[in-house]
Specification:
The complex is a heterodimer of chains A (482) and B (116). Chain A is an all-alpha fold and 482 residues long. Chain A is built from 20 helices and no strands. At the A-B interface, helix 1, helix 8, helix 17, helix 18 and helix 20 of A face helix 1, helix 2, helix 3 and helix 4 of B.
């Protein structure tokens, strides 16, 4: 199940909130959340839910031992066992096919590639469990004595399949003690509604535009796609790549918004995952604003344990390299993702070691430089097939012998011009700032106006989103490779 | 103090309104007799409720089928689709909308057709 489906909006979510509100004690409320979360997960992954349950239970057992023997060598042993189990399962399911495909290509072995399916959300919940194990080992949190409370943390549908990657220590106290006041409810509803609208009204349409113009980037469709990509006018390719750049931010941040919003409605406070990354003035700043829960995970559990920047520049560069190799790999089991991670390593190393001035460019140049780096980075991310990616990059500058524009391409831009403007605005805090300015004014007219807006906008978001989702089978779920 | 109380009351109304709409939506969407089985606009039979089998259950296609059925046969579907089209019409300047591919037509002949 996904947040932007009618089954979720019309049945699952209202029912969950209803039953949750009727439940009296915190333990009953938690049980409600667990049951609904398991249904949510099983809806999309009826068979592989056992992997989630197994991993959670195994880690729970191991965490008891880690906590019991803390200070002794056994504690580390159980931590290593837990990490090996989690990473082993993740590697098997996520990279099994990739590894065997490549060994077959290079060494001719094995003959048959096993068709290993990727359980939904495994990258997210594995990392959450890893953070739990390490934090218990480090003594930052006590091991959770009751399995069902750890299970709640792992499988909670808010963040289980599409993040943010929530650290156990950030929510451990909230598991047993949550309070929802009217301000939380108000913010939760606003976050959820704006996230839903962002996903359905903006991101999905961007996705359609991208698929229409730059096709699907899959190697399997290379023969079909290449002629069309080669002939496509430059304007069409720019539109497509730009639409994808918008889609991936709007979609991903919308999911985090909805997760944070739903969390607030039941008293959970999750940390922010995005901070308007397209406003960044350097690549370093971009990664401090994009998918913050992932970059902080790698910082706290890989970069800093490896020594960070405290062991000299060459070691720092190596640590950065490893972190970005892993970041690329986390995003997908294919060479283009690994290269995408290393692409960012190059720019980050450039900014950190070789040309530190890049981080202090004047605003206009900083924005332009960052957006260009990010723009081409997403092209690398989108195309699983390098041939198609290269054709598109050349085509952007008319180097395929393709025209710069065409009647259809310019007409398409016209057809979506206001929408594109709205999508770009949604990447900035302008709308939110305007809304806050209107809402916090004490002048009577804006107060009435803002109150009406406060009441009407979330409902409008629900109804409009429903209208877009009815009869529409096109609802991309970008996180299927996670 | 009064401002804060008014804000709290406003937030309460907001929450009540939001969840009331959600619950009404739930009831509305579950009124099975209201669900259409075919679309006159699109001239096709709409997605039927999926057949149950252990295989379809375990592979996930049963639930995916329910998702498709649920959104395809939503009550008042045509009204929603009309609203959707209306909203999309604001997305840009749509004086010209192209459906399908643009092809170059034949040249206009400069001599009259003589049947040969």
């Amino acid at each position: 199940m996904v947040f932007s489906s009618l089954v979720f909006l019309c049945v699952f979510f209202p029912l969950q909130m209803l039953v949750y509100t009727l439940a009296r004690s915190i333990e009953t409320k938690n049980t409600v959340l667990i049951l609904f979360s398991l249904v949510f997960y099983a809806w999309g992954e009826p068979f592989y839910i056992v992997i989630l349950l197994f991993m959670a239970f195994a880690d729970w057992l191991l965490s008891q031992l880690i906590g019991k023997y803390r200070g002794a060598w056994k504690s580390k042993l159980f931590l290593v066992l837990g990490c090996a189990l989690d990473l082993g399962l993740l590697s098997f399911f996520k990279y099994g096919v990739f590894v065997t495909e490549n060994t077959q290509r290079w060494f001719g072995f094995p003959e048959i590639i096993p068709q290993i399916a990727l359980p939904i959300g495994i990258s997210f919940y594995t990392f959450q469990l890893l953070s739990y194990l390490v934090d218990v080992y480090r003594g930052e949190v006590p091991a959770q004595p009751k399995f069902r409370r750890l299970l709640l943390y792992v499988c909670l549908f808010h963040q289980c399949i599409a993040g943010p990657i929530v650290r156990y220590k950030d929510v451990s106290e909230q598991i047993l003690s949550r309070h929802v006041d009217s301000e939380d409810l108000r913010n939760g509803i606003n976050r959820f509604a704006s996230g839903l609208a962002k996903k359905v009204l903006l991101a999905n349409v961007c996705g359609k535009l991208a698929t229409l113009t730059i096709l699907d980037g899959l190697p399997a469709h290379q023969a079909l796609n290449l002629p069309k990509l080669q002939a496509a006018p430059a304007l069409s390719l720019w539109l497509g790549c730009f639409a994808y750049m918008l889609q991936i931010y709007l979609d991903f941040s919308a999911y985090s918004d909805m997760a944070i919003g739903m969390g607030l409605m039941v008293g959970f406070r999750y940390k922010e995952n995005f901070d308007y990354p397209y406003l960044s003035r350097s690549v370093t700043e971009f990664w401090r604003r994009w998918h913050m829960s992932l970059s902080s995970f790698f910082r706290d559990y890989v970069y800093i344990p490896l020594g960070g920047n405290r062991k000299g520049k060459p070691r720092q560069a190596l640590n950065l390299f490893l972190v970005w190799l892993l970041t690329g790999m986390w995003h997908g089991a294919d060479w283009n993702f690994i290269l995408w991670g290393l692409y960012y390593f190059v720019f980050l190393a450039l900014e950190k070691f070789l040309i530190p001035g890049l981080q202090r460019l004047p605003a206009f140049f900083g924005h332009l430089y960052t957006l260009l780096v990010v723009f081409f980075g997403w092209i690398l991310f989108y195309f699983r097939d390098f041939t198609q990616a290269w054709v598109v990059v050349k085509g952007l500058f008319g180097l395929n012998g393709n025209p710069l524009t065409s009647f259809e391409a310019s007409n398409q831009v016209l057809n979506y011009c206001f929408f594109l403007l709205a999508a770009v605005l949604a990447c900035t805090p302008l709308i939110r700032m305007l809304y806050h300015r209107v809402c916090s004014s004490s002048h009577p007219v804006p107060v009435v106006f803002s109150t009406v807006l406060e009441w009407v906008l979330p409902v409008a978001a629900l109804v409009l989103s429903a209208s877009f989702l009815v009869g529409d089978s096109y609802d991309p779920f970008l996180y299927l490779q996670f | 103090m009064r401002h804060a109380k008014e804000r709290r009351r406003g937030s309460r109304i907001k929450a009540v309104l939001f969840f009331a709409v959600l619950l009404c939506g739930m009831v509305f969407s579950l009124l099975l007799p209201l669900r259409p089985t075919e679309s006159l606009q699109e001239k096709r039979k709409l997605t039927p409720f999926p057949e149950f089998s252990m295989e379809s259950l375990l592979s996930g296609s049963y639930f995916r089928g329910i998702d498709d059925w649920f959104s395809d046969t939503f009550p008042g579907r045509d009204a929603f689709l009309d609203a959707n089209k209306k909203v999309l019409s604001f997305y840009g300047i749509r004086s010209v909308e192209i459906h399908g591919e643009v092809q170059t037509g034949d040249d206009i002949p400069d001599t009259p057709f003589t049947g040969k």
